[in-house]
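Run folding on both entries below.
>entry_1
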Amino acid sequence: MILEIAQIEIKSGMEADFEANIAKASEIFKVAKGCRSFAVRRSVEKPQRYRLLIEWETLADHTELFTGSQAWKDYRAMVSPFFEGPPSVEHTELTLQAF
């Protein structure tokens, strides 16, 4: 299982609009091959900063099948107008689940 972590900075005053659109956009991920979960977290200290936590079965499900697809383009069209700049994205593997 791969966890994609995307950090997104949202334009000031656009947080509510972003949250409404990312909720709609989450439906795209429900049917994406290999997507296991989709969560959005907002920073307490920096309320314009969000992190998307998306679990994929494999890295290829995200990078080869989803990114660049029409579904990805639809998702980006829904949320990118609110971005302050390009998201920072990384992929992680679980090495310890302590409790």
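>entry_2
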Amino acid sequence: MSGRTVVRGGLVVTAAEETHADVLVEDGRIAALAASGTPAAEAFTAERTIDATGRYVLPGGVDGHTHMEMPFGGTRSADTFETGTRAAAWGGTTTVVDFAVQSVGRSLREGLDAWHAKAEGNCAIDYGFHMIVSDVRPDTLREMDRLVEEGVTSFKQFMAYPGVLYSDDGQILRAMQRAAGNGGLIMMHAENGIAIDVLAEQALARGETAPRHHGEVRKALLEAEATHRAIQLARVAGAPLYVVHVSAREAVAELVAARDLGLPVFGETCPQYLFLSTDDLARPDFEGAKYVCSTPLRPREHQAALWRGLRTNDLQVVSTDHCPFCFAGQKELGRGDFTRIPNGLPGVENRMDLLHQAVVEGHLSRRRWIEIACAAPARMFGLYPRKGTIAPGSDADLVVYDPHTTQVLSAATHHMDVDYSAYEGRTVTGQVETVLSRGEPVIERRDYVGRAGHGVFLPRSTCQYLN
């Protein structure tokens, strides 16, 4: 029985089904499931038993979009791989896929090695990497092939941030053509950064310096235009496309139109766009700086299109784009100039709970919750069925979740290494109770029992929606 655990009496919820079942874990994997109370389940023997009566048993969450220790605007995001993955576990996420960054003039390998060095030995949960491609050159394209072979199978490009991360249409097309050949997936930050910079310069010249102007210059139409352009470039290249952090209803409409044509185009949104709005960006006394991210928060009327896209599968994934900057000393860099506010919000700890609240409020079904938070990101990024489900042979990444308790989200109680919560004071129903990562407890009855270095790097296959 060495290394065996049985989780008894819970409602096992996956993207495919819900069933009252006991789960047997052996040597870090799911060994078997059996309906609770049956002779098959009662025959499960183990050295450790977890009572999940009255609880859900969920697959560990897969957050396909995080930025730990991310350099931005002369500073870096506040969470390290140690603090960020620990906070993720507290929120029921057991896998993150972070972004390694290629600097202009440098190789993909150099950027990837730098991120391996940051993460290795420091993560409480398992992790993978996407590769940000900032400098498309012939040698960069050849490197893309090699990265796919070693399990870094997705590449992010930016239509925003000219002079830093920006790629022009020709560079994007070349990378998409390469991805079409090697099986990689291009992820796109779709905003017209050239036009946004013009509008930002004009706003500052008018003396419009407050955080709310960040959202006003990053117009929804410029997100939609870039989304449309990215889709057409992907069509020309014959490549699949994954659009990150979709926030505007006009951008959703572009994805819907492409998918109605049968194109391999996918979309992600984030909790901040579902639960926050420009009302937060407009908070007085520079408080709105806490809510500066890109794409920006939109007026509340955009939220209905995002929820509808999640229900109709025109948006497949909810990730966090977790990129936290402290208000004191980091967000404050932009006092007097909204363009200097570091872009990003904390959220890796809150995603599963906020999406459960969406279940409580009727926006999503339980199975759809698990689909968009666990199974779909695992499939999208080549980790399924090792991650994202509860099935024999899958990693024993399990969350015992209390769907009835209430909690108040607050910086005073969260575990992210940032001095504010984007959801301060919000009451949600549901809370993580126990978390296993590959069969090992990380959270045990609301106590952290994990360790830095438990998490391992995950080489990934190519996007499983395309097989």
